[in-house]
Design brief:
CATH class of the largest domain: Alpha Beta
Mean pLDDT: 94
Largest sheet: 5 strands, antiparallel
Number of domains: 2
Number of strands: 26
Low-confidence stretches: 1-18
CATH architecture of the largest domain: 3-Layer(aba) Sandwich
Number of helices: 10
Strand order of the largest sheet: 4-3-26-25-24
CATH superfamily of the largest domain: DD-peptidase/beta-lactamase superfamily
Distance between the termini: 39 Å
Shape: globular
Structural class: alpha/beta
CATH topology of the largest domain: Beta-lactamase
């Protein structure tokens, strides 16, 4: 419709008045402002080549506040740990404890076990110093005391470690071969010790030209140290490199370390966890006064108490409960603990401790909370594999389900707190989100995820999932993008 113009004359002044319809602008609601601000962040030209997925939901009424690519598949990295820990808490319960069982073949006479000592591993990831004041041998010392309390001071037969509780590969499907020496890629095993790593401390020699000084914990003949690294002048840059020869327990230390550097520590993975376990256990038993006459062996055959070589149970050692284990997994994003829990799902529920079985169990559990199998594909427990594919929708379903679960508290308590602890200790500091946002991170190269919970200024709870794949900007840029969304949501007011 064309506007109608009226002309009114006042002396020599003409006023033209239009009768065209006028568009009245309404002020934006807080919800509209929030969506507009998030859209602005998502439409950042720097993220144009990235895949971005977002899902935000108000938990009081399960209303979707914002969604973007919520049903597309993303590599989750360590967001996969949400799938592992939530399903384990629900299917095994927060009170679940890992066990390590001790059996004997033969009789005990005058302090001598006339037969073999069998240790049956059942996936306990915590046989280390983590819960024992950093004494990595504390468990083994306690077990030596227990054996002596049962009248065993000498083992005339063999020390056998049975690892049949788990099956399949000791590395996850799709893991990178060049990660194998490093603690975050430790092998998986029903019998495991010290996160299946040896702890190494390195410090410079007294003067340039001296070899660097290397100490290990524990001291063991299970591995070899090849140290050609030297001490270099204080004004030189460190070229120190520590590696492990693939498929061998051979730790290679090369390069140079400035004389001015302080000592540094790191953990290097070992090959064949069960053998590592029984080798160190034997060393401790002998030092604690229990002699061993036979061999140190491992066995992965099916454990059968009704076998011809009838076994007698001596004692069972129990771990901390699962609630404490998932806190290790999520707070520090601990891959090894996640993988041990992951395989335990299959071993306990279907008596098949394989990654394939555990993957199916998680898939079935997800289906039960409304996630179709084409929206979540899990192949490992930690997220180290790029073969995992999940959607913001499926991660949100887990967060929603756990919010109403009897196991919500241990799940929620396991999540890092913004600006306070865990993997987001240094993020969102001095903002409204500090101490409020609880979220699990995820990172492998070109992948960054952040998913969890927050509470707005009115006390309303929300879940959020923020996933970014294939970005080319620095990861700090993605962190900032995710943090801004969390801050906006925490500052939200209806």
């Amino acid at each position: 419709m064309k506007p109608i113009l009226f002309a009114i004359t006042f002396g020599s002044i003409f006023l033209f008045i239009s009768c065209a319809p006028t568009k009245i602008e309404h002020s934006l609601t807080n919800r509209e402002k929030f969506i507009q601000e998030v859209n602005y962040l998502v439409d950042d030209p720097e993220l144009a080549n990235a895949q971005v997925g977002l899902y935000i939901e108000a938990l009081k009424d399960n209303e979707t506040i914002y969604s973007h690519n919520e049903k597309k598949l993303f590599v989750p990295a360590s967001n996969e740990k949400l799938y592992t820990t939530a399903s384990a808490l629900e299917l095994l319960d927060s009170t679940y404890q890992f066990k390590t069982e001790f059996y004997q073949s033969g009789k005990i006479n005058a302090g001598v076990l006339d037969g073999n000592l069998i240790v049956r591993g059942m996936g306990d990831p915590s046989i280390s110093g983590r819960f024992r004041d950093s004494d990595i041998l504390a468990f083994f010392k306690d077990w030596a005391d227990s054996l002596k309390a049962h009248g065993i001071n000498e083992i005339d037969g063999d020390l056998i470690g049975n690892e049949s509780f788990f099956s399949g590969n000791k590395l996850g499907y799709g893991w990178n071969w060049d990660d194998e020496p490093y603690w975050y890629s430790a092998q998986i095993g029903a019998l495991s010790f010290n996160d299946n790593c040896v702890d190494i401390t390195i410090k410079p020699g007294e003067k340039p030209g001296d070899n660097v000084v290397v100490t290990t914990n524990p001291v063991s003949e299970y591995f070899n140290i090849l140290n050609t690294a030297t001490t270099i002048s204080s004004d030189s840059n460190s070229t120190l490199r520590i590696d492990r020869t693939r498929g061998k327990n051979e730790i290679v230390i090369t390069g140079g370390l400035p004389v001015s550097k302080r000592e540094s520590s790191l953990s290097i993975t070992i090959e064949d966890p069960a053998s590592w376990f029984v080798t160190v256990l034997a060393d401790v038993l002998i030092r604690e006064g229990i002699s061993l006459k036979g061999h140190i062996l491992t066995d992965d055959s099916n454990f059968n108490l009704n076998s011809p070589d009838s076994l007698s149970h001596i004692f069972t050692a129990y771990s901390k409960n699962l609630a404490q284990m998932v806190k290790v997994v999520n707070k520090g994003s601990h891959n090894f603990y996640a993988e041990q829990i992951f395989k335990t799902l299959g071993a306990e529920i279907n008596k098949k401790g394989s990654a394939r079985e555990s993957s199916q169990i998680i898939s079935d559990w997800l289906a039960g909370i409304g996630v179709p199998d084409n929206l979540a594909i899990s192949v490992d427990g930690s997220g180290l594999s790029r073969m995992n594919l999940v959607s913001p929708f499926s991660t949100a379903a887990i967060l929603r389900h756990m919010y109403k679960s009897k196991n919500f508290k241990p799940f929620y308590d396991s999540l890092p707190i913004a600006g306070v602890d865990g993997t987001i200790k240094s993020r969102m500091k001095d903002t409204v989100a500090q101490g409020v946002v609880r979220a699990k991170t995820g990172y492998v190269r070109y992948v960054r995820s952040l998913s969890g919970y927050t509470t707005d200024r009115d006390g309303n709870d929300y879940l959020f999932v923020i996933m970014v794949n294939h970005y080319s900007v620095p990861t700090s840029y993605i962190n900032n993008f995710q943090d801004k969304i969390c801050i906006l949501l925490t500052n939200y007011k209806e």
